[in-house]
Amino acid sequence: MHAVIAASEEKMQKTVAVLTEGFASLRTGRASASLFDKIRVDYYGDKSPLNQVANISVPEARLIVIQPWDKAMISEIEKAIRSSELSLNPSNDGKVIRIAIPSLTEERRKEVVKVAKNQAEQSRVAVRNVRRDGNEELKALLKKGDLTEDEERDNAEELQKLTDSYIAKIGKVLDEKEKEILAV
């Protein structure tokens, strides 16, 4: 396998990983600790990830319990959750924060699916851009005389097969997320 192909595959893998990570923060109506991955809390002047200042657990399908390691952090955590784009309403009893995850309306489910499809399309475009860049590198190597025409053509075909497989992976990840979002 040529270095151009290997570098392109690595970039395509990262694209799928970023998409999967992005999907984890999409609200599906089911409680998940990953909803809070992007939330940062003001922890004595530093913006810290929520999971580094509290324990996040999911005791039921529609309930999340956040137990701060420092009780003084409860109001900061609540403020961070309320100001996030998650549209959640936390409540606390002085020791833990409880968040009931409301079920999504049909309209909201369709909006979330649209967001997921948009993210998947951006990932497909990114994979195609990696293929284009790889093909340009191969052509440059051909011009320099580092590759023969046959090697360039074979590597371009390999790059296309790689692109097709990663586009299919993106489709599979999207299908799984769509099923999760639309499941009632």
Quick structural overview:
The protein has 184 residues and is α+β, with helices and mostly antiparallel strands.
Q: What's the shape?
A: elongated
Oligomer: single chain
Tell me roughly what share of residues is in helical segments. Answer: 55-70%
Q: Give the overall average pLDDT.
A: 87
Largest sheet: 4 strands, antiparallel
What structural class do helix, strand and pairing data support? alpha+beta
Beta-strand percentage? 5-15%
Radius of gyration: 22 Å
Order of H and E elements: HEEEEHEEHH
Count of alpha/pi helices: 4
Can you tell me about this structure?
- The structure is a single chain.
- 57% of the residues lie in helices and 15% in strands.
- By secondary structure, it is an alpha+beta fold.
- It has a four-stranded antiparallel beta sheet with strand order 3-4-6-5, covered by helices on one side. The protein has a two-stranded antiparallel sheet with strand order 1-2.
- A hairpin with a 4-residue loop joins strand 5 and strand 6.
- The mean pLDDT is 87.
